[in-house]
Fold Transcriptional regulator, Crp/Fnr family.
Amino acid sequence: MFFHFRNKFPRLNIYWDKYLEFQQRLDVPAKTILLDEGKISQHYIYIEKGCVRSYFNKNGEDKTVQFFFEEEGLSSLDSFVNNLPSQFTIETIEPSVIYLLPKQYVSQLIAELSNEPDFTQMILYMSAQRQTHYINEFVSFIRDTPEERYQHLLQERPHIVQRVPQHYIASYLGVSTVHLSRIKSKLAKGKTHF
């Protein structure tokens, strides 16, 4: 859960190193399911290389919720913490190298870290970062048009547009691939006027 914070909290590296041996390294192709919707999450996932998405199925259609890249960690948090069926499927988009840390070791790691003075700061930092991101996504989905959301992606997270297939981006924006093509075409025409 916390391995991507190594550089921000170097004093805690002895813990990260201790738990490396409990992680399972997987070298997997694109479209590998790491967690199925409806199953209980048993692992925390850390991405060393590649791209992963979370999505849910609505009436036979995938709705992409989020993308994750190198040096990011994820799980279906409610499922992982509360032993509930996951609301999301987690799947690789690119060939990826990922690490899985079983829940029992995450619990042990948290118990050990809780005695460290930097732990509370790290948890607050991580929670605030994620909370801010999800609130911004939520507000943007209500306030902004699909075109504005695509422009935000281009400006703030261009790596998504560069690496993620268009049909997943369309799903993420809540539009069809045809609508996304129209948005891109309109934006490209707008650039020629400058």
Remarks:
- The CA atoms of residues 30 and 94 lie 4 Å apart.
- The helical segments are 13-20, 77-82, 103-113, 117-143, 146-156, 158-163, 166-173, 177-191.
- DSSP finds eight helices and eight strands in the chain.
